[in-house]
Specification:
- By secondary structure, this protein is mostly helical.
- It has one domain (about 5-150).
- Helices cover about 45% and strands about 10% of the residues.
- The chain has helices spanning about 5-15, 25-30, 35-45, 55-60, 85-95, 105-115, 135-140, and strands at about 25, 50-55, 75, 120-125, 130, 145, 145-150.
- Helix 1 packs across helix 2 (about 25-30) and helix 2 runs antiparallel to helix 3.
- Mean pLDDT is about 80; it is low at about 140-145.
């Protein structure tokens, strides 16, 4: 159960501007817009032995500092979790890009986001498969019901 109001946590984050400040992990993930199933999975499996998490840990979870040997590949630990795909990933990156964390924390996120923009594929740590990051995904230009919409080619039905 989320204890604090989302606006209160985001306001405190902006005021403290400390990337290493510990926050209650469930409240932090909720306020940052993580989907419920992903929040529960992270708390049960990834951070099962800790009560609090920092923004640095969240940023590292979304866009890892680890480098893939292949150029243009990005590593995201969250893609190792079940029911997390490219659409959820892109939506979360977009959500984090719209939050004001404070000047110093914003700078850290902007560096990670620049890494994201310079990449063309993303993969998890454990699994070697990767998904493309399309230009539409990078721009997150089209939305349907708040989720990213990646345009697909439609079959030409006029000639049939």
């Amino acid at each position: 159960m989320v204890k604090q109001n989302v606006k209160d946590i985001l306001k405190e984050m902006t005021e403290s501007d400390d990337i290493t400040k510990p926050w209650p992990k469930l409240d932090l993930l909720f306020s940052l817009g993580f989907p419920e199933t992903l929040r529960n999975n992270i708390c049960q499996w990834h951070w099962h032995n800790q009560e609090a998490a920092t923004l640095d840990e969240v940023f590292e979870f979304v866009i890892s500092s680890e480098k893939d040997p292949r150029p243009g590949y990005l590593i995201a630990k969250m893609l190792d979790f079940r029911n997390v795909g490219i659409k959820t990933y892109l939506k979360l990156v977009n959500t984090l890009s719209e939050i004001n964390f404070g000047p110093r924390c914003n700078l850290v996120w902007e560096n990670k986001y620049t890494t994201f923009l310079n990449s063309h594929r993303v993969r998890g740590i454990k699994f070697n498969w990767s998904k493309p990051i399309t230009e539409e995904g990078k721009l997150l230009a089209k939305f349907r019901n708040g989720t990213p919409y990646i345009q697909r080619r439609r079959k030409n039905t006029a000639n049939q």
